[in-house]
Design brief:
Helices cover 29% and strands 23% of the residues. It is an alpha+beta fold and 343 residues long. It has two domains: 258 residues, Jelly Rolls (Sandwich), CATH 2.60.120.10; 69 residues, no CATH class. It comes from Sphingomonas alpina. InterPro entries: Cupin_8 (IPR041667), JmjC_dom (IPR003347).
Length: 343
């Protein structure tokens, strides 16, 4: 697979590195961070990392011995696609999504290893507890009082378009190498995002081909690159990606494994902001301009401003969902929305 043009990416700023002495220091770094950082060797003692250092087949055998007997979801791209899992010319997907047992998937990876223009094969965001027995217990990062979702990502050489995630993310390379290219949250306008609903993996992605940027079609991408940070991670290394930072991820070896942890500092019973955006597209975007201005003011008043003026004139016992949310009041809002949307 061709690697990114060093004339474009070689001059990007590098992601800062920190040294942690143990779980307490990692916790302190995570709580203090509002920017990405890298920890070299954070998980270098994992048995999975040690297996991958011996060979890619040893890494796969290690996983096979711990798999649960259930079908896995796997994406298979087109031969000659340079590992890019993306849209096709008709804005469908350039890959197929299949269900198969892990031995069958790994057997196909074995058969294709070393072949030029082999199709990318990618298992994305596989729940470690649900699909493996004992894998998480033997290979995990201590994250204090956080309750993260632990996922494993496995596959051949791949390129995953720049996207962002709502939770915070600690991603650990367990086998192979990965290149991360990161952008601050506010750079979304310069990344030329695709649809918010028709997406390769549930999040809107940049339409820019990072290996061959078309600056005529995407001129603002130059501005995004001025704010970009890049790093290449080897097996054992980890990267912290703050919530909603944009990241383009490449698997650089014939076989790559990543383990990541997602968590949110906000309560689990709060709604998903993306759902609110989708509903606003349905209910507000196409209104007359004068009405849109009104609703912009309403959102500023109730949501983004949300100061004492909003409720000062309402008796405290009668503020309903304008009071600080609780699991119970959040549940009432959710039930109200479900009824309203079903009409």
């Amino acid at each position: 697979m061709a690697e990114a043009d060093p004339g474009i990416f070689g001059a990007l700023a590098t992601i800062p590195e920190v040294i942690v002495s143990g779980p307490e220091e990692l916790d302190r770094q995570l709580r203090a961070a509002d920017r990405p950082f890298i920890v070299r060797g954070l998980v270098s003692d994992w048995p999975l990392v040690e297996a991958g250092r011996r060979s890619t087949r040893d890494a796969r055998d290690y996983l096979l011995r711990r798999r649960r007997e259930r079908p896995f979801t796997v994406s298979v791209g087109a031969p000659g696609s340079d590992g890019r899992l993306f849209y096709d010319q008709a804005m469908g997907m350039n890959f197929r999504t299949l269900r198969a047992k892990l031995p069958e998937i790994f057997a196909q990876i074995d058969a294709l290893e070393g072949k030029a223009d082999a199709p990318p094969i990618y298992l994305a965001s596989i729940d470690m507890h649900e699909f493996f027995a004992g894998l998480h217990e033997a290979n995990h990062v201590e994250l204090g009082d956080r309750v993260p979702l632990a996922s494993i990502w496995m596959g051949t050489r791949t390129r995953i378009a720049a996207h962002n995630d709502i939770p915070d993310n600690l991603a650990c390379v367990a086998a192979g190498r990965r290149r991360f290219t990161l952008f601050p949250r506010e750079q979304f306008r310069n990344l030329y995002l695709g649809p918010v609903d028709n997406t390769p993996a549930g999040r809107a992605v940049s339409m820019v081909d990072f290996h061959a940027p078309d600056f005529a079609a995407h001129p603002r991408f130059r501005e995004a690159l001025a704010h970009a940070q890049v790093a290449e991670l080897a097996a054992g290394d980890a990267i912290y990606i703050p919530a909603m930072w944009w990241h383009h991820v490449e698997g650089l070896e014939p076989f790559n494994i990543l383990v990541n942890y997602w968590w949110r500092e906000t309560p689990r019973w709060l709604g998903q902001p993306q759902d609110a955006l989708n509903h606003a597209l349905l209910a507000i975007r196409d209104l007359p301009e004068d009405q849109k201005r009104y609703w912009r003011d309403m959102f500023d008043y109730y949501v983004f401003g949300n100061d004492d003026e909003v409720v000062a004139h309402i008796p405290e016992a009668g503020r309903s969902i304008l009071a600080p949310l609780t699991p119970e009041s959040a549940g009432r809002i959710r039930a109200f929305l479900l009824r309203a949307l079903s009409q």
